[in-house]
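User: For a benchmark we're assembling, each entry needs the component sequences followed by a predicted structure for the full assembly. Here are entry 17's components. Please fill in the structure.
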Amino acid sequence: MQDQTEVRRFVASPVALARPAALRRRWRVQPYLFLLPSLAFLATFTYYPILSSLEMSLYRVTATVSHPTFTGLRNYAGLATDPIFRQVLRNSAEFLAGTVPVTVALALVLALLLNRAHALTTPFRTAFFYPTLLPLVGAAAIWLFVYTPGYGLIDVYLRAIVGGGVNWLGSPALALPAVMILTIWKNAGYYMLFYLAGLQTIPAELYEAGRLEGASGWQQFRAITFPLLGPTTLFVLLIASINAFQSVDQIWLMTGGGPDNTTNLLLFYIYQVAFMFFDLGKAAALTVFLLAVLMAIAALSFGVLERRIHYEV
Amino acid sequence: MTPRGSRQLVTALWALGVGAMAFVWVFPLLWAFSTSLRAPGQLGSQIASLWVHHPTFANFREAWSDAPFLRLYYNTAVVVFGILGVQLVTITLAAYAFARLQFPGRDLLFRLFLLQLMVAPSALILPNFVTIRALGLLNTRLGIMIPYFASAFGTFLLRQAFRSVPRDLEDAAAIDGCNSLQTIWHVFVPLARPTLVAFSIVSIVYHYNEFLWPLIITDTERARTVTVGLASFTQSAESGAQWNLIAAGTVIVILPLLAVFVLFQRKFVESFMYSGLKG
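Assistant: Structure for entry 17:
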C-alpha cells in the first residue's frame, strides 16, 4: 500500500523526488552567493556612503585642515544660520512646486490627447517624448540660445507676447522660472508615457456605460478616467518629486546657481560646497539633509510602490 | 452639420492644436540641427530661423578639432556598455535569488536593495567621491562605472519577469540535469528577454546622458564622457557667442542616441513605458 502511493506520487510528480530536501539544504549558501555581487557594490556605494556622510557631517573637514576635528553638530548649526542655505531651500521648494504639478498635469493632458488611433498619433507622441533621450546638458546648451537676449528664439519669435530684450538667465526674478520651463519641456513627454500606459488599462465598457447614462466628456473624465488613473498619478508625482531634487545639470551649464544664488538648488549647493569651496563637513551635513528629504519622499512612495507590486502578482 | 462632419472637424482641430504644440516641442531640436549647418560666425536675426541658405559642415569640422570627441565617444561607450555588462550579471543572479529561492532574511535583503531606488546615487556624490579617491580611481572610467554595478531597479524589474516563468520549465531543466546557473541561462534569461532589453535601453540612455558624477570624477580628458566634454566646450564657445559651433557640438553629442531611437522607436518607447510600470 505504502509502496503503491509512493509509486503513484512518483508518476504524478517526478519532480518531488528529483529535488529532495537534502539537496536543497546543501545549497543553502547559494542564494547568498547569488546576492553577493550586488550586495558588495550596494554596500560600498549606497549603504556605506549614507553612514559615512552622517559621520563626516560631525567633523570639520576642509581643504585647509589636514586633520578632521570633531565638532559635533556644529555643521548643522551652521546650516541653520546660513542665509544661502535658506535661499537654496526656498529655491528648491519653488522649483518643486513650479515644475512637478505643471509637468504632471501637462503629461496627463498630452496622454489624453494622444490616446487615439490616428496616423499622426505616433509622430506627435515622438515629438513630446524625444527630449527624454537628450542629455540634460545638451538640452541646456540648446536652451541657452532660446533664452539669449537680442536674437535668441524667445526674443525673435515671442517678442510680441513677452516683450524683447529680456535677459532671462541674468535676471534674479526670471532665471529660476526659465530653468523650470526647460525642465518641464524635458520631462513632460516621459511622464506622458506612464499615463498612456495607465489609460490602456481602463476598460472600454466603463465609458460605454457612461455614455449610456448620458455623461458628458468632462463628466466621464471626472468619474472614470481621473479616479482610475489615481495610482499612475501618485507614482508619477513621486518620480517627478525625486527627480526635482536630482536634476542640476542644467543649473551647472546655464546659470551656475546665479544670479545671486536665485537658481541654486539643494544638490547644486552640495556640489558647490564640496567641490568648489571644499568644505566637506558642511557638504556632508547638506547631504544628510538631502537624504532625509529623499527618505521622506520614499516613505510616501513605499506604500504606493508596494501596492503596485501587489497589483501585478 | 452631420455627425460625421462634426467628427471630422474635431479631428482637424485636434491635429492642428496638438500639431502646433508638437512643433513648439521639436523647434529647439530643429533649430540646433539647422544652426549647426550654418556658415561659422553667421549671426544676426536669421540665426533664429530654421532655413539655412548655404548649408556647410564647417562647424562640425571646427567642433571636432576643438574638442576630442573621438576620445569622449570612446570613453562614453566603454562606460555605458561596461556598466550594462556588469549590471546584467549582477541583476540576473540577484533577481533569480529573490524570485525563486527561499532563504532566511530574504524580505529584509530585498528591502535593503530597494533602498538604492530611494537614495539615488546623485545624492551621494560627496561620500562616493571620497571612496573613489581612496580607491585611487579618480580620472578612470572604472571610477565612473563602479557605483552603478549593482542596480536595485534592474533587480526589481527582472524579479517580476522571473516570477512569471512557469515552474514546469524550471523543473524540466532540473530533470535534464541543469544546475541553477544553467537553468538561469537556458530557461530564465531567454524568457525574460523583453525585460532585459527594456532594462538595457533605459540603462544605456541614463548613463550616456549622465553628467554630474563623471564631471566630479574626472578633471582631465583621459576618462571624460561626452556630456562633460560638451559642457566645457559649450562654456568656452558661449563666451564668444559662437552659437553655430555650440549647435554643432550639441548635435555631435545627442546624435548617436537620437539615431538609434529613430531606428528602434517602438522598442524605446515601450521600454521607457515598461520601466515606469514596473519600477
